[in-house]
Automatic annotation (TrEMBL):
Class of the enzyme per the UniProt entry, highest EC level: hydrolase
Gene3D superfamilies, A to Z: 2.40.50.90
InterPro entries in UniProt: SNase_OB-fold_sf, Staphylococal_nuclease_OB-fold, Thermonucl_AS
Keywords (A to Z) from UniProt: Calcium, Endonuclease, Hydrolase, Membrane, Nuclease, Transmembrane, Transmembrane helix
Obligatory cofactor(s): Ca(2+)
Transmembrane segments: 7-25
Signal sequence, renumbered to the chain: none
PANTHER family, sorted: EBNA2 BINDING PROTEIN P100, SERINE_THREONINE-PROTEIN KINASE 31
Gene Ontology molecular function terms on file: 3' overhang single-stranded DNA endodeoxyribonuclease activity; nucleic acid binding
Protein name: Thermonuclease
Source superkingdom: Bacteria
Domain TNase-like intervals: 45-178
Length: 180
């Protein structure tokens, strides 16, 4: 009798451990990523930088607190091209670039990182916060100056950008205008 109880307990433990291991590997259950992330509560953790110059709508050069220069690429979205070699300037590219220049140049901003900190070009990948409530990446998408674009594995705010894009599309803003 005692050994059958021990076998039952052992089987239950193995099943529980197996289920937890499966959930851990698949990022489900208690190990799930928070896919319902919003920008309402602000970023989790940031680092402050000073924007020196804007390259285009989704890329800028900044200096960190140690005076190191960083080339930063906004993630989760993509603006029309203006400076890509062998690529013509795309519609609303200048508008996106000018908007970013007007709102970021010579300003202090806060970078929030996701799973992958750099891209293949060595640029720092970040969500850019103007303050605790305003993410610049989201602002560009809401204004129709960028489209949601997911680059795995950085998808912390993917649902936020999808919603912002749907709103901009329904209002026919900029890149979503009927004339485009």
């Amino acid at each position: 009798m005692k050994s059958s109880k021990q076998v039952t307990i052992l089987v239950c433990c193995v099943v529980v451990i197996g289920v937890l291991l499966f959930q851990f590997i698949n990022h489900s259950g208690p190990f799930a990523n928070n896919d319902n992330k919003t920008t309402e509560n602000g970023p989790d953790k940031t680092s402050k930088v000073h924007v020196e110059r804007v390259v285009d709508g989704d890329t800028f050069v900044a200096k960190d607190n140690d005076n190191n220069e960083l080339k930063v690429r906004l993630i989760g979205m993509d603006t029309p091209e203006t400076v890509k070699p062998n690529t013509p300037v795309q519609p609303y590219g200048k508008a996106a670039s000018n908007y970013t220049k007007d709102h970021l140049t010579n300003k202090d901003v806060y970078l929030e990182y996701d799973k992958e900190p750099k891209d293949r070009y060595g640029r720092t990948l970040a969500y850019v916060w103007l303050d605790k409530k305003t993410m610049f990446n989201e602002v560009l998408v809401k204004k129709g100056l960028a489209r949601e674009k997911y680059f795995a594995p950085n998808g912390k705010y993917r649902d936020v950008f999808k919603k912002a894009q749907a709103d901009a599309q329904s209002k026919h803003l900029n890149i979503w205008s009927k004339n485009h």
